[in-house]
Amino acid sequence: MSYNRALSTPPPEPIETKVKYTKKARHGHGKDVIDSHNIRQVAGCLPIDPAGKRILLISSSKNPEHWVIPKGGWEIDETQEHAALRETWEEAGLKGRIIRRLGIFVERANKRIKAHHWIFEMEIDEIAKKYPERQKRDRRWFTYDEALLATQNNEYIQEAIRVSSLNPLSTPRSSIDAQVSPTTPTATEDLMQSETPKKKSMDGFETLKELMENTTISS
Q: What CATH code is carried by the domain that includes residue 112?
């Protein structure tokens, strides 16, 4: 997806060069980047466990029955990658490394563009029990198909999932196209095995409902 709009608040050389895993969420208070059409720019991650071929989604703070990716306003003293990693920590308690930019996706409300979402695929290295928004959201694992079903209220998230490396029909991108500044990687083979029971993937909403009831990650 191409992106040609000029930003009306172009960020300077970023002040933040490393993600700070703080106890409280950062709030922009007017620092969000917007484009020349006054459209808000949002950054977020699609957090994956490549070994388990699963995606971690969080509940929406406004609509707890809806499942979303961690995301938030890209602020003027950050890169998109930094903003995406920061929001993923604040909302989901995840640490990891970005492996590719999935694209820039349009969120619409009442047929008008609400925001542009810069979404990155992130391999999870660590899942914290304590993080800034742990009292506001649930976290749950989903297979590729289950994630598409769970995010049916957000087409732009579904678009990002479809171009991720977990799509069984996707063609891997070259390292030149895919790779962006990573943080230090660690293995994910045993990620959260003690907290999340193994489930066989099946079709249907009832199966998804059962999965969600039994795989909540303790905060």
A: 3.90.79.10
User: Residue 107 corresponds to which tokens in the numbers above?
Assistant: 């969120």
Q: Phi, psi (5° rounding) for residue 146?
A: -65, -35
Q: Please tell me the number of Cα atoms within 13 Å of 140 on its side-chain side.
A: 26
Across the chain, what does the average pLDDT equal? 78
Q: Is residue 116 part of a domain?
A: yes
Q: 67 in helix, strand or coil?
A: strand
pLDDT of residue 121: 97
Segment 85-98, tens digit of pLDDT: 999 999 999 999 99
Count CB neighbours of 34 within 10 A.
18
**How many domains does the chain divide into?**
1
Spatial CA neighbour of 167 closest among 44, 43, 48, 3: 48
Q: Give dist(CA 141, CA 53) in Å, integer.
A: 10
Report d(CA 101, CA 133) in Å as an integer. 25
Give tens-digit pLDDT for 196-215.
433 333 333 444 445 445 44
